Amino acid sequence: MIKTLSLTASLLACFASVSVVNTPSTCSKIQVRREWRDLAIDQHTTRTATTRFEEFQATHIYLTERIHSVGQFLPWHRHLECGYHGPETFWDWTRDGNSNRPILGSPIFDPVTGFGGDGVPGTYTLPPDPDGLSSVPFPARWKGCVQDGPFNATVINLGPGRLLTKHCLVRDIVESWKFNMTSENVAKQMDASKPYEQFRVIIDNLVNGIHGSGHVLVGGEIQIHPLFYMHHSNLD
Ligand SMILES: *[C@@H]1O[C@H](CO)[C@@H](O)[C@H](O)[C@H]1NC(C)=O
Ligand SMILES: CC(=O)N[C@H]1CO[C@H](CO)[C@@H](O)[C@@H]1O
């Protein structure tokens, strides 16, 4: 209860800073959100710094059942980013969904200036999970370790799910899934969902929804990776 109250209090504090007030004021400095590939390269480096990163992963794992498929899904995920003071950036997946270029050719998955590429088949096996702690929705989509780019040698200590295992960053990027991420599909989901309740249910659908599909397109464990924050900024 205390945890819920303090989360609510900090959520309010977080939104208080962006709430609209009637007193006219001028902004001395306006920060513009930029799509990730429109940032200068040194800003990429800043955004992917890993200070206290595991605390963010752990918070998301610990609260998983309370922050997905519920009304606070979007505000909670925004709250997780609250406190980051740089210009917020995002992964506009419609730029990849609308493009004829294969998804792995996207600057997002570039091995040098991006987040690295696909998992290598046969390099990862899900650990035994007799107590059902990992709650992996698509076990077949844990193809293998990302073995290029800045996360090649990254050791992840948390996960899958609530298991604690040392492992690599796992992906299984599937080309056909990018067709969920077109502007057309985004517009369709916006049009179909008038009340907020309907909206969050539609976007959260794992197969067609723009939130669920972002996860499934990348496969493996996007939620313990910086790309997760780019994905959620875009939903915002
Ligand atoms: C990935 O890391 C391994 C182990 O450190 C190394 O042998 C390999 O050269 C790296 N691959 C790339 C593409 O950087
Ligand atoms: C709306 C849409 O295009 N949905 C597709 C999302 O991707 C899966 C896997 O390719 C398809 O089965 C869906 O039809």
TrEMBL record:
Cite the Gene3D superfamilies for this sequence: Di-copper center containing domain from catechol oxidase (1.10.1280.10)
Tyrosinase copper-binding domain: residues covered: 51-236
Q: Which residues form the signal peptide?
A: 1-20
- GO function terms (MF aspect): metal ion binding; oxidoreductase activity
What Pfam families has UniProt attached to this entry? Tyrosinase
Entry keyword set: Copper, Metal-binding, Signal
Superkingdom, taxonomy of origin: Eukaryota
Does the keyword section mention Metal-binding? yes
Tell me what this protein is called. Answer: Di-copper centre-containing protein
